[in-house]
Write a structure and sequence with these properties.
Elements: E1 27-29, H1 31-57, H2 59-66, H3 72-88, H4 90-104, H5 106-124, H6 130-133, H7 136-152, H8 155-166, H9 172-200, H10 203-210, H11 212-216, H12 218-230, H13 236-244, H14 254-259, H15 262-293, H16 298-326, H17 328-352, H18 355-373, H19 376-379, H20 389-405, H21 408-419, H22 424-442, E2 457-459
Parallel strand pairs: 1-2
Helix pairs in contact: 1-5, 1-8, 1-9, 1-12, 2-3, 3-7, 3-20, 3-21, 4-5, 4-7, 4-20, 5-7, 5-8, 5-12, 8-9, 8-20, 9-16, 15-16, 15-18, 15-20, 15-22, 16-17, 16-18, 17-18, 17-22
Length: about 450
């Protein structure tokens, strides 16, 4: 992210419906517990996104393994179709795990989602190819992806809620940014492994057995992630809600999580839309775009994306700290404006084809994406009060990701095939930026303020 000053977004004309503000005396956070919570949530998120990253970066090979030979574009579409299918069940997972997290606790649900995610990914590495078992290969692939998608429905909302509820108010942006640091680390791990295999293995070895290695690694990684999450303690905010449960905390119906929070849910959907469309466009779709659409060398394309993600990781904590100083709204607004103005020039650079031009175009998009990765983990939980935070955020986040984020590779590939216009990725990101800009206009600033419904959180010693 640039160090240049960022203009503040205009004040909201119609702020969201009021939600319960801070209640109770200030709570002093335990720095050791905060660090443990951030590490466990971020590392668990990294394990999950390692799995998603591998699937994205090896999509071309998976298309050849699991679907009939013939049209390469049709194979890629089929692979991304299975990728998108997992996102279609995410809202169901969110409707199950989100309310459960508000009822039985954040830590327990995060442990369950880790187990399911690791099991689904490990299973992919065991599925025989289409040449071996025919149509059952894509059917089993789809089943494993649905398990992954269902479990992920409770993952991001739970992890961001966990960090937000542990963090002191004045450092929530910085601490929350480490969640997406974990995401980028997972992607880099997946991309790096795929790049290494692509460079070291022949096409035949990669097709016959090499592609299985990253998925089989999910087994031991899942065990490590489960251990980390089982060592977590519940957040102070949730503990306070439990303490009131004896007399004052009824179970919240799913309907209330939606209809009672509809304004905040609409803002959540808009913010998550621009965040995830640009995220999946850059980190999931672009490697295949470079290889399949622009006929770019596969290894060089993956290395460029890997370098962009490494750069984003370096900038991420500083950008998170910036949101604590200037606010979430100005940083998110800057990202929306950047994607609206620079998506076309960046994609033209990428299409120019030279390594320098591709790196510059991808790097520009990556720095704009940091505006969202650094802000959203702290901005989204602050939209909802404590007693419905996990459930309402899970629903809003996953509906938006399912409809717009996870379908991005499939939709853009289909649009290019239908129109022949190679600039479709830029137009799609620009449309998402407009929606995100509208959401920023109506959201209220949360930086430095207590979470709605929770006591103020200050730094302990």
């Amino acid at each position: 992210m640039s160090a240049a000053p960022v203009a503040a977004a205009p004040p909201s004309r119609r702020p969201p419906a009021p939600v319960p503000r801070a209640v109770g005396a200030p709570t002093a956070t335990d720095p050791a517990l905060v660090r443990r919570a951030v590490k466990a949530a971020a590392l668990g998120n990294a394990m999950e996104w390692f799995d998603f990253g591998v699937y994205s970066y090896i999509a071309v090979t998976l298309g050849k393994v699991f679907f009939p030979s013939g049209n390469p574009t049709a194979q890629l579409l089929s692979t991304f179709g299975a990728f998108a299918a997992a996102f279609l069940v995410r809202p169901l997972g969110g409707m199950v795990f989100g309310p459960l997290g508000d009822r039985v606790g954040r830590q327990k649900v995060l442990a369950v989602t880790m187990i399911m995610m690791a099991a689904g990914t490990f299973a992919i590495g065991l599925i025989p190819s289409y040449a071996t078992i025919g149509v059952w290969a894509p059917v089993l692939l789809l089943a494993a992806r649905l398990v992954q998608g269902f479990s992920t429905g409770g993952e991001y909302a739970g992890a961001s809620t966990f960090i937000a509820e542990y963090a002191p108010d004045r450092r929530r942006g910085f601490l929350g940014s480490w969640l997406e640091f974990g995401t980028l680390a997972g992607y880099i791990g997946g991309a790096g492994l795929v790049t290494l295999m692509t460079a070291l293995l022949s096409d035949g070895d990669l097709m016959s057995w090499g592609w299985r290695i990253p998925f089989l690694i999910a087994g031991p990684m899942g065990i490590v992630g489960l251990y980390l999450r089982m060592r977590l303690e519940e957040t102070p905010a949730f503990a306070a809600e439990v303490a009131k449960a004896e007399t004052a905390r009824p179970k919240v119906p799913l309907r209330e999580m939606v209809t009672g929070q509809w304004r905040a849910l609409l803002l959540c959907v808009g913010l998550v839309l621009v965040f995830n469309v640009t995220d999946y466009m850059l980190l999931s779709y672009m490697p295949s775009y470079l290889t399949s659409e622009l006929e770019y060398d596969e290894t060089h394309g993956l290395l460029v994306v890997l370098g962009v993600m490494a750069l984003m990781m370096v900038v991420q904590p500083f950008a998170g700290a910036l949101t604590d100083r200037v606010g979430r709204r100005p940083v998110i607004a800057a990202g929306c404006a950047g994607f609206l103005l620079l998506s076309v020039p960046a994609l033209l650079l990428i299409r120019e084809g030279s390594l320098l031009a591709v790196a510059l175009g991808m790097g520009a998009l990556g720095m704009l994406l940091v505006c969202f990765t650094a802000s959203m983990p702290s901005a989204l939980p602050a939209l909802f009060p404590t007693r419905v935070r996990y459930g309402s955020l899970s629903i809003g986040f996953n509906v938006s990701v399912s409809l717009f984020g996870g379908t991005t590779p499939l939709v853009v590939t289909a649009l290019i095939g239908a129109t022949g216009d190679m600039m479709m990725p830029a137009y799609y990101m620009m449309a998402a930026a407009v929606v995100g800009g509208v959401a920023v206009w109506f959201m209220t600033e949360s930086a430095g303020r207590p979470l709605p419904g929770s006591a103020p959180a200050v730094e302990g010693r």
